[in-house]
Design brief:
3 domains, D-Maltodextrin-Binding Protein, domain 2, Dipeptide-binding Protein, domain 3, alpha+beta, 4-stranded mixed sheet
């Protein structure tokens, strides 16, 4: 940087605005600037001209001295700025390296699978069904907090299972929080979070999301969010960036709740009278979150799939990939075939339900995978407002008829949990000695009898034909119940209708 600021100015053609900026930087006051920019143009008066020239030279000397002082003061700030820029560049370079030291590849299209059309009734607060497929790991939506992660242990060739999960919650859209007592959580919202439509995310939006899960008409009475939300006594947006969560009673899963409830856009998400997105009825509807990926409404085709595109203006920065595409397949078996063939890059959620496919993928050096945890059921549901299944003993009696280990062996392979475990492996509440398959037909018969279900009784259950193993499981139950002369009628149900029954 040249020390003589005004010498450089004389060698350049400066606009008045540039001169104002330069003068302010050099420390020239308003009076001095007026003299520099507005001198007398009368050349017929030599004395006046000479006096003006002397005055201008004096002003230039003064400005030069001030510029030198300003530059000396700016040098530490400039050095600090350069250090900050270098730190940012280093952080970006480090962000392009994974935990194993491998360079992260950027760009390209990440191809994923979906087993059916989008089922977005009550989305994003009800995460049941294919709602989890579109946003399984926070692509589109954020929560107040997130989990720290898990340790994966390799149990087979390039196949890992959860081990020693870190259930400590970490900041997500909440920068931090405090718990002044066991019934109060106060969250500080990050100031740079924005929705995909550009609107700033505030504490009122966070409070709205927690009020939404408490409303059975919004989140659905059978959804995990609704049942977890029963512990909430109320919420309050103290100011734009402070939200208070009040509990009716202290519960150990409150931290999990803060890492589970998605932050939705109040003006576009579901309500009591309208689903979040039903493209068949409302082509203008959109999904708006705060995550690094944005739903491309124009790309959605209920017969083929959809895509997510980067949201570069978000608080999480730009994603590494160019886009994520989702292709709809007829069933889980077709997904497994596509993954083997390389037509898709990844799949999670719905099991392939074909042990041979799973064995081939695990044996392949071109694939890797991991087994995690899941919530809820997929394929079989009793109506709790119809006799005799209003009695929970009737429902539990039927579940005791399910030979979970046989189902796993015949339909899922060795790398899936048996159904009807109270807590699955990897869960905070999992205890190996207590969480075992509870197949016990004799105990099931006792529960059914206590509920008044016996010889000649008829039970009705909804099942999902889109899952190939659903009819098979239902037939196993029919066979077990027939030994007690109990008839099980099956109602093949569309996915949307199944979710609406929650």
């Amino acid at each position: 940087m040249e020390r003589n600021y005004w010498s450089r100015m004389r060698r350049q053609r400066m606009s008045r605005r540039s001169l104002l900026r330069a003068s302010a930087r050099a420390g020239v006051g308003a009076a001095g600037l007026a003299l520099v920019g507005c001198g007398d143009d009368d050349d017929d008066q030599p004395a006046a001209a000479q006096a003006e020239q002397q005055q201008q030279q004096a002003m230039e000397q003064q400005a030069e001295q001030q510029a030198m002082q300003q530059e000396q003061q700016e040098q530490p700030a400039a050095q600090q700025q350069q250090q900050q820029q270098a730190a940012v560049a280093q952080a970006q370079d480090q962000a392009m390296v994974d935990s194993q030291g491998n360079t992260i590849q950027t760009g390209g299209v990440f191809k994923r699978a979906a087993a059916s059309q989008l089922t977005l009734i009550r989305f994003p607060w009800n995460s049941a069904g294919n709602n989890g497929t579109i946003d399984p790991t926070g692509y589109m939506y954020n929560c107040l907090t997130s989990y720290g992660g898990v340790q994966l242990n390799e149990t087979a060739n390039r196949f890992w299972e959860y081990a020693n999960p870190d259930w400590e919650i970490k900041p997500d859209v909440a920068a931090g929080w405090e718990t002044p007592d066991n019934l109060t959580w106060i969250f500080d919202i990050k100031p740079n979070v924005v929705f995909h439509d550009g609107r700033a995310f505030t504490a009122a939006d966070a409070a709205h999301s927690y009020e939404a899960i408490r409303d059975q008409g919004v989140s659905g009475g059978g959804s995990p969010a609704y049942n977890l939300g029963k512990v909430i006594a109320g919420t309050e947006a103290v100011d734009d960036l402070t939200m208070r969560l009040n509990l009716g009673e202290p519960r150990g899963f409150t931290g999990a709740l803060t890492a589970y409830v998605r932050m939705g856009h109040p003006e576009t998400a579901g309500s009591e009278t309208a689903p979040a997105l039903d493209m068949a009825r409302n082509e203008e509807a959109v999904l708006i979150g705060t995550g690094p990926w944005r739903f491309d409404t124009d790309s959605y085709d209920p017969n083929t799939g959809w895509r997510l595109v980067p949201f570069t203006e978000g608080h999480m920065g730009a994603p590494h990939m160019d886009e994520i595409t989702y292709t709809i397949f007829s069933d889980a078996d077709a997904i497994g075939i596509a993954l083997e063939a390389g037509d898709i890059d990844s799949h999670n959620g719905i099991p392939f339900n074909n042990p041979e496919t799973i064995d081939r993928l695990i044996a392949s050096d071109d694939h890797w995978g991991w087994a995690g945890t899941s919530l809820g059921g997929q394929i079989f549901r009793f109506a709790i407002d119809v006799e005799p299944t209003t009695d929970p003993r009737a429902r539990h009696g039927v579940w005791r008829m399910v030979d979970q280990e046989r189902v796993v062996r015949d339909y899922f392979g060795p790398y899936d949990d048996a159904g009807r475990l109270f807590f699955q492996r990897g869960s905070q509440g999992y205890i190996e000695d207590q969480d075992r398959p509870n197949y016990d037909p004799a105990e099931g018969a006792k529960l059914l009898d206590a509920a008044g279900v016996g010889e000649g009784s008829v039970l009705t259950a909804s099942t999902l034909p889109i899952r190939p193993y659903a009819p098979a499981l239902a037939q196993l139950l029919q066979a077990e119940l027939s030994t007690l002369d109990i008839e099980l009628e099956l109602d093949p149900t569309e996915y949307n209708v199944m979710i609406e029954k929650q």
